[in-house]
Amino acid sequence: MKKIVYLLMVIGxxxxxxxxEDQVELDVPEGPKRLVIDGSxxxxxxRQSVILTQTxxxxxxxxVYIQDAVVKIIDDEENEYTLSYQGxxxxxxxxxxxxxxxxxxxxxxxxxxxxxRSSPVEMQPVPAIDSVRYYFSEQFPxxxxxxxxxxxxxxxxxxxxxxxxxxxxxxxNDSLQTNIIIDDDENTNGVTFxxxxxxxxxxxxxxxxxxxxxxxxxxxxxxxxxLFNTQANNSGGLFDTxxxxxxxxxxxxxxxxxVVLGFFGAENIQxxxxxxxxxxxxxxxxx
Length: 287
Description:
Blueprint: E1 3-5, H1 12-15, E2 35-42, E3 49-54, E4 64-65, E5 70-75, E6 80-87, E7 90-93, E8 104-111, E9 114-118, E10 121-122, E11 131-137, E12 149-157, E13 165-172, E14 175-176, E15 181-184, E16 192-193, E17 198-204, E18 209-217, H2 219-232, E19 250-252, E20 261-271, E21 275-276
Parallel strand pairs: 1-17, 2-20
Antiparallel strand pairs: 2-3, 3-4, 3-7, 5-6, 5-8, 6-7, 8-9, 8-10, 9-19, 11-12, 12-16, 12-17, 13-14, 13-15, 13-18, 18-20, 18-21
């Protein structure tokens, strides 16, 4: 069974034709400032991190970092891990912390006299990566905006006894690719993916190094990322999903009407070996 997972990135400049370049100044009223939380506890034995920022006005492109918050991760046995400020909104634990399968974790943030918490998130099991391979295609599978070239395939066996939700991070030449790649096993429960059965996309070239993280996430985190993808890839068409705040699992303890943006997750991560794409003898026409 072949399965293709990739995010079609909206390339506005190539899809929208402009008939003029007049500068338009919009008078947009200021909205309320919202706390934005981005972080996870992972299964990797490392310093765990959370980033705290604040929304800004429509015409303001500068990030506003939250610098003076009290940030803690608490597990289901009431063990607390304090995160200290490192700069540019980043908070980290002082020492390495490793999330454990089956344990639940809650993020607590105290800022400007308010306390915010995440709903508890449980670390899920993740299947091992059997192999990461690369293949050449004249056109990216199923067609797309991608040029001919090499693409990445992951070999692994889905667990038939559980309902699983996945995220993959792809590193090319040690640089994390920013597209969000997610999937569930609704139609592939218990399937073993081999050779080029399971493809995660972006077109690659000879000499590129690739490394993959395969991550088990919760259903709630999967639904959050899926909605985020949908909103991010709206192109203004008639059948687009109406724009709306992408709400996560954070809330104000004393005011459940306050909108808090972002998500705190638990990520069980399998990391592949790094491989370098070698020339398989195919010619790629320069575009």
